[in-house]
Design a protein that fits this description.
The protein has 779 residues and is of the alpha+beta class. The chain contains 13 helices and 38 strands. The strands form 9 sheets. An 8-stranded antiparallel sheet has the order 1-2-29-28-21-26-23-24, with no helix packed on it. A hairpin with a 2-residue loop joins β37 and β38. α4 packs across α7, α7 crosses α8 and α8 packs across α10. 44% of the residues are buried.
C-alpha cells in the first residue's frame, strides 16, 4: 500500500520565484512536517490493517472469496452511469465504518482497462474532467515512460501477472472521493492518498459491505490531482496499488500465503518506477537506515519510522529489477513461496542467474556506496542520481587504537578513512561468520573492491596517493541467524588501524556540480548547510560560493540535538564572507567567486555535527555587482541544505525541491564547504577570564524560532536571565542558577509557545549588574 510520494514528508505548495537567470515552479518540501502538524500522504497499509482490526475483518476466518454468488456479467458502465458504491470511513472511533456514496462515471476506457467514478460531492470543485481524462489516459494507454504506448494497466500486467476478476469485467474501477480519515478530523498530519481494499474481492454473502469488484480508491482532499505534483502522486499510487491487486491474486490475504511486507511493498514501489514515476524518496535510507534489519517492517509501529522501511524496500527492488530485468519480478510475484525462498528457489533460477539473495545483498550494499557500474555492473544503478549512502564513521587519522561498533541482522555500516598514508586495518568479528567485510577504494588510480578477511591485516600502501578514500563495508549476511529480536540485538565487531597522519585539511562537501544560479530569497531569510562531524577533528575554515562582491554575515553553531531548533551552541558568530569576483553573462565551467573564511582561531571541535548559516540582507538586484549578496546553489538528489523562510504563513527551516516531475535530482544544495584537520601538537586556545560583565546582542536578530543570547561573567555568582514582552510581563526564564566566571550562551526558542511577532526584552541580573537589550521576533 502506498506511502509518501516524491520526497518525505511533503508539503505540496507550488509558486513562482525569481531566479538569477530564469524562473522556475518551485515545490517546497518540509522535512519537519511530521513534527509540525502539516499535511502529507501516508501509507495505506497501516490504515487498512487498523481499519480491518477495528471492524473485525479477519481474512483467516473469511477464507478465500467464494465465486458462486458474485455477479456473472460485466458492469458495462458508460460515461454518465450512476452508482452508489460502499466506501470506508477511517476516522478514529466512527460509528459507521462503511457508508454508501453517490457517484457518477466520468470516464470509461476506449479499450478495456478502467472506469473512473467520481463522488458527486467533489465533482466540479475538487475534481475536473481534465484531471479525470489524464488519469484515464495514464492508466489505460500512456504512462509516464517517455514515448510510451502502454498504460499502467498493461505495464503492471506484463511485469507482474494478471489481476483478479471477481466481477466478470476486465475493467478496473477507480473511485475518486474524499477519503475520510484522521486528516478529515484535524486537517493536519497524514492523509491516505489511495488504497486497494481486498474486502471488495469477497461475496456479499461473506461480507455484506463488499462492492464485489476490482477497484481502487483515490483521495480528492487534500490530494489535488488538478496540479502536476498531485497528479503524479495519484498516478504513482495507482501503479503501486494495481501491483498490490495483482499480488493479491496470487497470494490472497490468508496468513500462510500472504507475501512478507518488505517484499510485497518492494514490488509495488518498483512498479512506480517501471511506469515512469519517481523512485520513492531515498532520504531516510541514505541518512540513517543502512544499519537496520533489512527485512523488518515498522518494528516501533511509528508512522514517521516506517518511511525508512519504504525507502529501503524501494531501493532494493529497483536494484533487483536493474540486475535481472522485469522477469525476476513476475516469477517472484507468481511464486507459491514468499520472501527469500521465492527469490532463491523460483525467481532467480528463472532469470536465470547463479546469484542468490546472500550474494545479491552484499553487492547491493556495495552499490549503495560505490554506485559505479563501470567498475562492475553489480555495483551501481542505471536509474539516475540514486543517492550514495554516507559513511557511518569517518576517520581523518588512520591511527585508530581500538574502536567497537555493531551491526543488526541483515544490516550494514561503512567505515571510511579519508586522510593519511599507508593504511593497515584489522577487524575482529568475534568469530561471527555472518559478519562479512569488503574494502571499497577510490582515488586517482580508479576504484576497486576487495574481500577483507576478519583477523588479518588489510594493507593499502598507496593510501593517500593512488587511493584517497578507503571505506570498509561491515555487514551481517545470514538471514537464518537465530536472533530473538533482529531490530534490537546487534552483532558486535571492533577494529584497529595504523598509518601516517599527514594532517592535511579534509574537505567536507555535499555539492558535486557547478552552480546553476541563486534563489532570490527575501531579505531576512537564512540559508544553512548541516555538516556531519568527523571524530577528533577541528574546523579549519569554510568556503562559500557567493554571487556578488558584497559582504554577507553568518555563523557556525553546533547542530541542535533535541527540539525543533536547528542551532545549538554558538561556535563562531558572527563571521563574514566578502565576494572577490563578479561573474556576468554565462557562468564559467568553474565558479570563480569562492571565498574562504578562516576559523582556526575559534578552536572549533568538528567531531560532531555543526551548522554553517548566513543571513540574507537586502533585496537582491539582478546584474548589480555590488548589490546584496546571495549563496550560489545547484540541484542534486540529496541535500544537507536548509532555508529559513515562510511557507503557508509558517516561518521555519525547510528543504526544497524545484521540479515536481523529476524531483529525484532537484533538491537545492547551497555551495558551502567545510575543511577540517586533526590537531598535531597544537595547544588548545586558552580562554582568558572576562574582565567585566557583558550582555551581547542576541543572534540572529530578528529571529524565529530560536536565537542565542551570549553573556560574560568576570566572577562566579547567581545569574538570572529572563525574557519579557512589551508590557513587562515575563514570558520565559532562561537561566536561574549559580554559574562560574567565563563566557556563556543561552538559547531562547518559541517552538512550543504562542508568542506573536514583535519586540521582546531580555534582562540579565548577577550581583549588582543588570542589563537589558531588545530583540525582534518575526514570524
Amino acid at each position: 500500500m502506498k506511502s509518501f510520494k516524491i520526497y518525505l514528508p511533503i508539503l505540496f505548495f507550488v509558486f513562482t520565484i525569481s531566479f538569477a537567470q530564469t524562473k522556475l515552479n518551485m515545490q517546497k518540501v518540509d522535512e519537519s512536517a511530521l513534527s509540525n502538524g502539516e499535511s502529507y500522504p501516508v501509507d495505506a497499509r497501516e490504515s487498512n490493517e487498523a481499519f480491518d482490526k477495528a471492524n473485525g475483518i479477519d481474512y483467516a476466518k473469511l477464507g478465500q472469496p467464494i465465486q458462486t454468488n458474485l455477479k456473472k456479467v460485466a458492469w458495462n458502465f458508460t460515461v454518465g452511469s450512476i452508482k452508489s458504491w460502499i466506501v470506508s470511513d477511517r476516522r478514529p472511533g466512527t460509528s459507521t465504518p462503511f457508508y454508501p456514496i453517490p457517484t457518477t462515471c466520468r470516464a470509461a476506457s476506449v479499450g478495456s482497462n478502467c472506469y473512473i467514478f467520481v463522488a458527486d460531492s467533489v465533482w466540479g470543485t475538487r475534481v475536473t474532467q481534465t484531471a479525470v481524462d489524464q488519469i484515464r489516459i495514464a492508466f489505460d494507454s500512456q504512462n509516464a515512460v517517455p514515448n510510451s504506448n502502454k498504460g499502467i494497466f498493461q505495464t503492471d500486467k506484463e511485469t507482474y501477472g494478471d489481476p483478479p476478476d471477481v466481477d466478470h469485467d476486465t475493467k478496473i474501477i477507480i473511485l475518486i472521493f474524499d477519503i475520510l480519515d484522521s486528516y478529515s478530523v484535524t486537517h493536519t498530519g497524514g492523509y491516505t492518498v489511495g488504497y486497494f481494499h481486498p474486502i471488495n474481492e469477497y461475496s456479499k454473502l461473506q461480507y455484506s459491505n463488499s462492492n464485489e469488484a476490482e477497484m481502487f480508491f483515490l483521495d480528492a482532499n487534500p490530494l489535488d490531482i488538478s496540479n502536476s505534483s498531485g497528479l503524479i502522486t495519484g498516478l504513482s499510487t495507482l501503479a503501486h496499488e494495481f501491483q498490490h491487486m495483482i499480488q493479491y491474486n496470487y497470494h490472497g490475504m490468508l496468513t500462510a500465503a500472504q507475501q512478507e511486507t518488505f517484499f510485497d511493498e518492494g514490488c509495488s514501489l518498483v512498479a512506480e518506477v517501471i511506469n515512469g514515476y519517481p523512485l520513492y524518496s531515498q532520504s531516510s535510507y541514505y541518512n540513517i537506515s543502512t544499519n537496520r534489519y533489512m527485512l523488518g517492517w515498522n518494528p516501533n509501529n511509528d508512522a514517521t519510522d516506517v518511511i525508512k522501511d519504504y525507502s529501503r524496500a524501494a531501493r532494493f527492488f529497483l536494484y533487483l529489477k536493474e540486475q535481472f530485468g522485469v522477469g525476476v519480478l513476475k516469477s517472484f510475484t507468481q511464486s507459491t513461496r514468499t520472501g527469500i525462498n521465492a527469490l532463491n528457489i523460483d525467481a532467480l533460477p528463472a532469470v536465470p542467474t547463479s546469484r542468490r539473495f546472500s550474494d545479491i545483498v552484499v553487492d547491493w550494499w556495495i552499490a549503495n556506496f560505490l554506485n559505479d557500474r563501470n567498475v562492475d555492473t553489480k555495483w551501481g544503478y542505471i536509474y539516475p542520481n540514486v543517492p550514495k549512502v554516507p559513511a557511518t564513521t569517518m576517520n581523518a587519522d588512520p591511527n585508530v587504537t581500538y574502536k567497537s561498533d555493531a551491526v543488526y541482522k541483515l544490516g550494514a555500516e561503512y567505515i571510511s578513512y579519508i586522510s593519511g598514508n599507508n593504511l593497515t586495518a584489522n577487524f575482529n568479528t568475534n568469530g561471527k561468520t555472518a559478519l562479512q567485510l569488503r574494502a571499497i577504494e577510490t582515488g586517482p588510480a580508479g576504484k576497486k573492491v576487495s574481500v577483507v578477511t576478519p583477523g588479518s591485516n588489510f594493507t593499502e600502501p598507496n593510501f593517500g596517493t593512488d587511493y584517497t578514500n578507503v571505506t570498509f563495508l561491515v555487514c551481517h549476511n545470514d538471514n537464518n541467524d537465530a536472533v530473538l529480536n533482529p531490530n534490537s540485538i546487534p552483532f558486535a565487531y571492533s577494529y584497529t588501524s595504523s598509518g601516517t597522519n599527514e594532517n592535511k585539511p579534509t574537505e567536507i562537501a555535499y555539492d558535486n556540480t557547478e552552480p546553476t544560479g541563486i534563489w532570490n530569497w527575501p531579505a531576512g531569510d537564512s540559508v544553512a548547510v548541516v555538516f556531519d562531524g568527523i571524530p577528533g577533528t577541528k574546523l579549519d575554515s569554510i568556503r562559500v560560493a557567493l554571487r556578488t562582491l558584497s559582504s554577507i554575515n553568518g555563523g557556525v553553531w553546533r547542530k541542535a540535538t533535541s527540539g525543533s531548533a536547528l542551532f545549538g551552541k554558538q561556535l563562531a558568530v558572527p563571521i563574514t564572507a566578502t565576494g572577490k569576483t563578479y561573474v556576468s553573462g554565462t557562468y564559467p565551467p568553474q565558479w570563480t567567486n569562492w571565498v574562504k573564511v578562516d576559523l582556526r582561531n575559534y578552536n572549533i571541535d568538528a567531531s560532531t555535527s555543526f551548522v554553517v548559516s548566513f543571513v540574507l540582507e537586502g533585496t537582491y538586484q539582478i546584474g548589480v555587482a555590488t548589490g546584496p549578496n546571495r549563496i550560489m546553489n545547484t540541484y542534486q538528489p540529496s541535500s544537507n541544505s536548509l532555508t529559513y523562510t515562510t511557507n503557508n504563513d509558517v516561518r521555519k527551516w525547510y528543504n526544497f525541491t524545484v521540479d515536481d516531475t523529476n524531483p529525484q535530482d532537484s533538491l537545492i544544495v547551497y555551495l558551502i564547504r567545510a575543511y577540517v584537520s586533526l590537531p598535531t601538537g597544537v595547544k588548545d586556545v586558552i580562554e582568558l577570564m572576562p574582565s567585566s560583565f557583558k550582555l551581547a546582542q542576541n543572534y540572529p536578530n530578528p529571529f524565529n524560532p530560536s536565537t542565542v543570547i551570549s553573556y560574560q561573567l568576570p566572577v562566579s555568582g547567581q545569574v538570572s536571565l529572563k525574557v519579557y514582552d512589551m508590557l513587562g510581563r515575563e514570558v520565559a526564564t532562561l537561566v536561574n542558577e549559580f554559574q562560574q566566571a567565563g563566557n556563556h550562551n543561552s538559547q531562547f526558542s518559541i517552538s512550543n509557545s504562542q508568542l506573536s511577532s514583535g519586540i521582546y526584552f531580555y534582562t540579565i541580573r548577577s550581583g549588582n549588574f543588570v542589563e537589558t537589550k531588545k530583540m525582534v521576533l518575526m514570524k
